[in-house]
Design a protein that fits this description.
- Helices cover 43% and strands 25% of the residues.
- The protein is built from 4 helices and 6 strands.
């Protein structure tokens, strides 16, 4: 989670345009809410809260993706799938009965590839769903209640 401070530029049809001006950081590049990662002003559109108007200073909460989930999906799961495939390849003796090592390697690589394909499909589904939009958590130092975050 990242907290950003910004200024309301406009409010229209329940949406507020917020301008944030912050030096790009590593967390900013991973977030995915903004396209640019440079040191420029960024304009974000968020759901407006009651009583907000242009010129208000606001604090935004931006949820970031979990690093641990990425490590598990791209490193741990394929490695475990490879070892599982090797064990399965060792037990299945009717395929290539004369070459146990080749059979183990093929089954290991097959299960490794399937796990990477699964991680890729999961990532595509998350990207299609989109990231959670930023939420205004305070206006000029006044903290908003959870009912307004919705």
């Amino acid at each position: 989670m990242i907290l950003e401070e910004g200024t309301v530029v406009s409010v229209h049809n329940g949406k507020a345009k917020i301008e944030i001006n912050k030096t790009a950081a590593e967390a900013c590049a991973r977030c995915g809410v903004c396209i640019s990662a440079g040191d420029i002003k960024k304009l974000l559109e968020v759901r407006a809260v009651p009583g907000i108007s242009a010129g208000n200073k606001v604090t935004l909460r931006i949820d970031t993706p979990s690093t641990y989930k990425g490590i598990i999906l791209l490193l741990l799961l394929p490695l475990l799938a490879f070892f599982f495939g090797c064990i399965v390849g060792e037990k299945i003796t009717f395929i290539l009965p004369e070459a146990a090592n080749l059979r183990m390697g093929l089954f290991g690589l097959l299960s490794f590839s399937i796990s990477l394909l699964g991680a890729s499909l999961y990532d595509k589904r998350l990207r299609a769903k989109g990231s959670t939009p930023p939420v205004i958590i305070s206006v000029e130092g006044e903290t908003l209640g959870h009912a307004e975050e919705g």
